[in-house]
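Structure (tokenized):
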């Protein structure tokens, strides 16, 4: 109780001192355990910007809690709601920041900065909405990773120890993106199927959007792992920042959220997820992707 009161006071104090310029922020979207942290940390180092951590994670003190957002919320890009719009604007201004969002930075860095790396790992379905409602000097980045590798990593992480083996359809606004698949989602019976469906629902909205890879930069985890420097060069070229020096960056560095600090060959990393599942499990996960008409091999080679 005392600590909660202390946190509220701290939150009021440090939010008063933070003033980010919305259009200068760098937004980065991906999936939880989708390999986004390394790139987020690298961009933070390169541009000397603090990181705001996963603002869409459902929690009671989030600025979005009052809207009953789903853990993977969708909003139509033309949706007009002043309260919701202002909540996103406050995020972009650095207002309403809580202790979770500054998990990997500190208020001193935020006070000194006019921009931040804002890393969304539960906000991909919001990417069309955010890029329609707000403008940014640098196009947001959107990363995807092989869904089977994502699910394998999630199931090894303590954050998913209580993952459901049935799909719970959200009851909040715009849940029709889930409802239209209700009959299929009811057939899922295992954790890995449910998590694969979450990945597919989150990313299908973006991948099928008319502005895909136009109003945001599309990259894959696999491309980044195989040739991180080339992926970064691609991003910097899109931002007209090709003159930045990359010599001091450590492209072999593990991210802070990596479950293992051991350096392993790239081909081993890319194939490691296969040891987590039986052939039957893989087939059931593939059936989920087939239902949503997603061919990841095709996407990763684009």
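Design, position by position:
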């Amino acid at each position: 109780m005392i600590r909660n009161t202390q946190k509220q006071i701290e939150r009021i104090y440090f939010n008063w001192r933070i003033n980010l310029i919305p259009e200068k922020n760098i937004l980065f979207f991906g999936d939880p355990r989708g390999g986004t942290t390394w790139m987020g940390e690298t961009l933070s180092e390169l541009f000397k910007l603090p990181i705001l951590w996963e603002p869409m994670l459902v929690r009671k003190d989030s600025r979005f809690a009052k809207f009953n957002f789903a853990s993977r919320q969708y909003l139509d890009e033309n949706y007009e709601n002043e309260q919701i719009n202002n909540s996103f604007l406050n995020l972009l201004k650095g207002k309403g920041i809580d202790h979770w969002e500054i998990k990997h930075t500190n208020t001193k860095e935020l006070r000194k900065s006019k921009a931040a790396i804002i890393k969304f790992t539960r906000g991909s379905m919001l990417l069309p909405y955010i890029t329609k409602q707000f403008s940014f000097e640098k196009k947001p980045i959107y990363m995807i990773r092989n869904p089977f590798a994502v699910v394998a990593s999630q199931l090894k992480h303590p954050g998913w120890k209580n993952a459901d083996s049935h799909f719970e359809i959200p009851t909040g606004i715009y849940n029709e993106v889930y409802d239209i698949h209700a009959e299929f989602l009811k057939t899922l019976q295992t954790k890995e199927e449910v998590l694969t469906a979450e990945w597919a629902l989150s990313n299908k909205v973006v991948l099928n959007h008319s502005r895909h890879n136009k109003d945001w930069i599309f990259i894959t985890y696999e491309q980044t792992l195989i040739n991180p420097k080339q992926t970064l060069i691609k991003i910097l070229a899109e931002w007209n920042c090709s003159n930045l020096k990359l010599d001091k960056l450590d492209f072999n560095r593990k991210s802070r959220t990596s479950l293992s600090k051991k350096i392993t060959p790239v081909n081993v990393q890319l194939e490691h997820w296969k040891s987590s599942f039986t052939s039957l499990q893989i087939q059931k996960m593939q059936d989920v992707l087939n239902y949503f008409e997603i061919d990841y091999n095709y996407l990763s080679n684009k």
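Reviewer-requested clarification: The mean pLDDT is 91. Residues 6 and 12 are 10 Å apart (CA to CA).
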